[in-house]
Design goal:
The chain is 29% helix and 23% strand. It has a seven-stranded mixed sheet with strand order 14-15-16-13-12-17-18, with helices on both faces. Strands 22, 23, 24, 25, 26, 27 and 28 form a seven-stranded mixed sheet that branches. The chain is of the alpha/beta class and 691 residues long. The structure holds NADP nicotinamide-adenine-dinucleotide phosphate. NADP nicotinamide-adenine-dinucleotide phosphate is lined by residues 152-156, 179, 181-183, 212-213, 229-231, 234, 238, 254-257, 293, 398, 400, 426, 481-482.
Length: 691
């Protein structure tokens, strides 16, 4: 049976017999994969013209809801994927990371819609004033690229590898062409089938090729983005593709990484951190049979702890049941295939030139319900190397399987040096109960890592672990790890959107971005802005209030009411060596009195509640006798979705009211207007007229 490619809006067979794909546990042939005969130029053009074209017409909210629907759909189908995933050698726990971890990325990115505008573009950073007179300003925005995200993935996480990437490009408004590693592409294909069957994505938003990439990269152009996950050698070759270089195609590389874990020299065998350390290593060596880009390859401990640690890890590894992942007692499955096992063995030979085995065997293993000859099983292998500064191999050779090397350091400076000898990693972990050691490690090695986990007894139980990239955190690392970066919540969008610095008059910036730019002219009408429904409010709707004079009694009464008797608010204070001339009004009094000026009093109106204050600044002191007034401007609007109650769930009061969030720009001014006395953005929830 041949795997199909989903391209040009349909499932297509590649020509020829194709590459055989094997069940990693039994060695049986499952199917054949071929991309022969596919026209990659047309495929990329289809993705741009159909998929990206449709996605860029959708707002972030619509794209986010689309991702959520997709995540829910896949979650309902997940058992089908588990059945296929066993064939990759993965246990149920391994598959959970791949399948549900991948779907979790869709959910997480879907939730980001709440932080993004109801628009096709996003704001990036603050409005920047560029002139004294306030007539020239700037704002960065992000607009979706017009290309396709081409994802060339590694074999170890056939589902997560695809979903963590497409979640981001789809949210950004860019279509994807996914090329999973051929050896496990049958699992990716089963998920893509469900995605296509669901009809949730617009046509062309996701295409899949199972098999070789052929001349695909010869047709990418500057609006496309290529992401590559795999070995450094392949990565370098692809990154140097003349077309990629000529067209300046963004290329995100995630490659081999010799991640490390370090045991602080404060940790002794009777401390909880000792066991936490050993447990973390065992987990990283055995989950996915060590085929994780983030897995721990290098273990650094003090000379005193060296023997105790490696005997402890060895004992812990000896308790791991290995074999057919369909057997429930099995805790570690197989590698993805025989070829991968041969590759790992080759790498072990290199490591053994300077290290020796303290646990495991390269060629034998006792298995449950499985055969070493036909399946791709391998024993966990713990090596030790007593001269880490004199041995290049443990810091350079990645055996992409259940293989790790323990090495000693003399003092903590050495531990930092050793960690850096990996020449850049995706992640590392420091296990310590001493904040100073953690700080030394982070500041000493942070520039060599994409992520650092600081593990101790307080967080170990709830920690997500050394090896788990999370959708809200960046994933990637410098140097050997590829120099790439992906995910990271909203940061991920930047990879698929063009950042444009807009310069112009405040009115123009407001008109273009639909967010009020300070110094734009406001629209003052007879109707108080609080009397307008969400749909009726325009950006720039403005209210300029009456003046209020601040008295010493106001300040005294506010101090008594709140209990804030800070010396600057007390009339009798000696102000000779302070920042103030005399008794000064509380900033919070001014903000509260501001509300007293701008709020539409007594009558019920569409404003449902005050939601919070952002970016509140007090910039000029106000003394008794001074007066101030407020300029209150509608700055930004964001529609809210009506929450649907899950079965048996009771939603908070008002959840069924159609509404949106309105941000208001509040300027506290006196006669001189500039500089402002204070500034803030307040958030209100405003009722909609209709759904
Ligand atoms: P690989 O051999 O480099 O392959 C990676 C991907 O590149 C596969 O999809 C492969 O397709 C494709 N590829 C190979 N030659 C190509 C070409 N000429 N043109 C276009 N695509 C080509 O790596 P792997 O063996 O699958 O994965 C293991 C490696 O990945 C390990 O070194 C591991 O550290 C690394 N990895 C890194 C991360 C990370 O996030 N940093 C994550 C996972 C894995 P075919 O399968 O069709 O050859």
């Amino acid at each position: 049976m041949k795997l199909q490619n989903y391209v040009l809006g349909r499932w297509i067979d590649g020509e020829g017999e194709g590459q055989p794909l094997y069940n990693a546990v039994t060695g049986d042939v499952i199917s054949f994969a071929s991309t022969e005969g596919l026209d990659f130029e047309k495929i990329l053009q289809f993705g741009r013209a159909r998929g990206t074209h449709s996605l860029t017409k959708m707002t972030f909210s619509e794209r986010g809801r689309m991702l959520r629907a997709l995540a829910m759909h896949l979650m309902n189908q997940k058992e089908k994927f588990y059945q296929v995933s066993y064939m990759t050698g993965a246990t149920r726990a391994d598959s959970w990371i791949d399948i549900e971890g991948g779907i979790g990325n869709l959910f997480s990115n879907a939730s980001l819609r709440r932080k993004l505008p109801d628009q096709i573009y996003a704001m990036d950073g603050e409005n920047i004033g560029l002139s004294k007179g306030g007539t020239f300003a700037a704002q960065h925005i992000l607009v979706p690229k017009e290309g396709v995200a081409v994802h060339i993935n590694a074999y170890n996480f056939p589902v997560w590898g695809m979903l963590e990437k497409i979640a981001v490009n789809l949210l950004a408004g860019v279509a994807a062409l996914v090329k999973p590693a051929t050896v496990t592409s049958y699992l990716t294909e089963s998920v893509v089938r469900e995605i296509i069957n669901s009809g949730i994505l617009p046509e062309g938003a996701l295409q899949l090729v199972c098999g070789g990439a052929r001349d695909m990269l010869n047709y990418v152009h500057s609006q496309d983005v290529v992401t590559f996950t795999g070995s450094a050698t392949t990565g370098l070759m692809l990154k140097s593709n003349p077309n990629i270089l000529r067209e300046n195609v963004p290329f995100n590389l995630e490659a081999d990484s010799l991640n490390c874990i370090v045991l602080g020299d404060d940790v002794k065998p009777d401390m909880p951190e000792w066991d936490i350390f050993i447990k973390e290593i065992r987990k990283e060596m055995t989950v996915k049979a060590g085929q994780k880009c983030t897995a721990i390859r290098r273990i650094f401990v003090s000379e005193e702890a060296f023997e105790g640690v490696y005997t402890g890890i060895a004992k812990s590894l000896s308790q791991t049941a290995i074999g057919n992942p369909l057997n429930e007692s099995v805790r570690m499955g197989s590698l993805a295939g025989q070829t991968q096992r041969e590759e790992v063995k080759k790498q072990i030979q290199k490591l053994l030139t300077t290290s020796e085995i303290v646990y495991g065997s390269e060629n034998t293993i006792s298995l449950i319900d499985a055969d070493y000859e036909t399946g791709a099983f391998m024993s966990p292998l713990l090596l030790k190397n007593e001269k880490p500064f004199e041995s290049a191999e443990p810091h350079n050779v990645e055996a992409f399987g259940p293989v790790s090397t323990v090495m000693p350091y003399k003092n903590f400076d050495e531990a930092i040096e050793l960690a850096k000898m990996g020449k850049g990693s995706l992640c590392s972990t420091i296990v310590t109960s001493d904040g100073r050691i953690a700080r030394d490690f982070v500041l000493g090695t942070g520039n060599y890592h994409g992520r650092i986990l600081i593990l101790n007894r307080e967080c170990a139980k709830e920690s997500t672990g050394h090896g788990s990239p999370l959708p809200m955190l960046v994933h990637g690392g410098p140097g050997r790890a590829g120099g790439g970066e992906e995910m990271g919540g909203l940061r991920g969008l930047h990879h698929y959107m063009q950042r444009v610095a807009l310069q112009g008059s405040p009115e123009m910036l407001t008109a273009v971005t639909n967010v009020y730019s300070p110094h734009s002219k406001g629209h003052i009408t007879d109707v108080h802005p609080f009397r307008k429904y969400f749909e009726e409010l325009r950006i720039g709707d403005q209210l300029v209030t009456e003046k209020r004079v601040v008295t010493s009694e106001d300040i005294d009464r506010f101090a008594d009411l709140t209990g804030d008797h800070f010396y600057a608010h007390i009339a009798t204070t000696d102000f000779s060596d302070t920042m103030f001339e005399r008794q000064v009004a509380h900033g919070y009094f001014l903000m509260s009195a501001a509300a007293g000026l701008f709020v539409d009093n007594y009558e019920k109106n569409p404003v449902l509640l005050n939601y919070g204050i952002e970016e509140l600044r007090f910039t000029k002191p106000v003394y008794p006798g001074d007066s101030f007034y407020i300029r209150f401007t509608c700055k930004e609007k964001k529609s809210q979705e009506i929450k649907e109650a899950k079965q048996g769930e009771e939603l908070p009061r008002g959840s069924d009211i159609p509404k949106g969030i309105v941000k208001w720009y509040v300027e506290i001014l006196d006669e001189s207007e500039e500089p402002l006395i204070g500034v803030a953005t307040i958030l209100t929830m405003v009722r909609k007229k209709s759904l």
